């Protein structure tokens, strides 16, 4: 499960000054290093949504380092598996060429945990965001990740009148994702099922974005095996709609949603995008050229 990064507030609904314009015109983009698809443990008697763990300190929670399994074990307890965000982060690091095995990294972090911004250690039963695991990996591997750049974007707490979709203020989220993919970056997204037009959102889900075109997006998903039918790297594809800009109060607003949750983009619940985590790893030569250019500008300034 993805933790919420914003809060719906129907009182802040935007009164559109113009009709909603659906954005169309983005080309299909493929990552250069291939796809990675870490899946949650689910081959035992558990399921996509739960695991079993040895509650060594009897606090009714999986703590870092405690053994866990997707199969029942005598005396072990069951808990919800909310690690989609962690799987997506491992996919992104693998696709960026920073880890040899996304599965091994996921297994390590799922058991032993990663810190969030508040200093809590999150494991497989905690909700989180891709940036937590990526920042932790970067701190663990400073030399390897010297050029790793991490950028996150979140939707606002404004919602569009009549449809409940969260607005993105002065950010076109679809174009943002497309731009990072086109530059060879890796992108993880977060979304929430939109249950009604008042902006009510339930528990979220994280995916690793792989391809975009005018009306669909393709992704790898920790909760589905269908993308392994023809071998690792096959994708799940869904319809999406991005509309805007809608001008209000001196800002431009966009909305972006999809049919992930029910297969019909015209009816609730739809998947409402609200979080983007993008990483890039510029080539060392690119970084050297950048520093050389900065040095040249400084030399000219001194002259």
Name a few traits of the molecule.
303 residues; alpha+beta; six-stranded antiparallel β-barrel; three-stranded antiparallel sheet; 5 helices; 21% helix; 25% strand; globular; disordered C terminus
Mind explaining what this structure looks like?
- The protein has 303 residues and is of the alpha+beta class.
- The protein has a domain at 10-37 and 145-302.
- The protein has five helices and 13 strands.
- Strands 8-9-10-11-12-13 form a six-stranded antiparallel barrel. A three-stranded antiparallel β-sheet has the order 2-1-3, with no helix packed on it. Strands 4-5 form a two-stranded antiparallel sheet.
- A hairpin with a 3-residue loop joins strand 9 (205-212) and strand 10.
- Helix 1 (84-95) crosses helix 3 (130-140).
- The radius of gyration is 21 Å and the shape is globular.
- The model is unreliable at 7-12, 15-20, 23-30, 227-232 and 285-303 (pLDDT under 50).
């Amino acid at each position: 499960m993805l933790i919420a990064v914003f809060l719906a507030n129907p009182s802040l609904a935007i009164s559109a000054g113009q009709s909603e314009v659906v954005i169309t015109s983005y080309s299909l983009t493929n990552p250069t290093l291939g796809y990675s698809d870490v899946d949650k443990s689910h081959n035992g008697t558990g399921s996509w949504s739960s695991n079993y763990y040895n509650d060594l300190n009897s606090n009714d929670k999986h703590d870092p380092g405690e053994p866990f399994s997707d199969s029942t074990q005598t005396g072990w307890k069951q808990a919800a598996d909310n690690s989609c965000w962690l799987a997506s982060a491992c996919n992104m690091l693998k696709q960026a060429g920073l880890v040899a095995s996304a599965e091994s990294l996921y297994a390590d972090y799922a058991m032993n945990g990663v810190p969030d911004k508040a200093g809590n250690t999150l494991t497989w039963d905690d909700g989180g965001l891709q940036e937590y695991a990526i920042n932790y990996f970067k701190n663990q591997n400073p030399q390897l990740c010297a050029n790793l750049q991490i950028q996150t974007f979140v939707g606002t707490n404004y919602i569009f009148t009549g449809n409940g979709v969260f607005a993105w203020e002065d950010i076109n989220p679809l174009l943002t994702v497309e731009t990072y993919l086109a530059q060879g970056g890796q992108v993880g997204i977060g979304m929430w099922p939109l249950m009604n037009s008042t902006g009510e959102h339930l528990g979220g889900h994280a995916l690793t974005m792989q391809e975009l075109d005018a009306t669909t997006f393709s992704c790898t998903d920790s909760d589905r095996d269908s993308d392994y039918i023809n071998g690792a790297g096959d994708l799940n594809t869904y319809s999406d709609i991005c509309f805007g800009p809608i001008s209000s109060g001196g800002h431009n607003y966009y909305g972006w949603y999809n049919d992930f949750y029910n297969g019909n983009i015209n009816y609730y619940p739809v998947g409402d995008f609200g979080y983007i985590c993008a990483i890039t790893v510029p080539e060392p030569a690119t970084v050297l050229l950048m520093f050389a250019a900065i040095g040249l500008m400084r030399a000219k300034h001194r002259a």
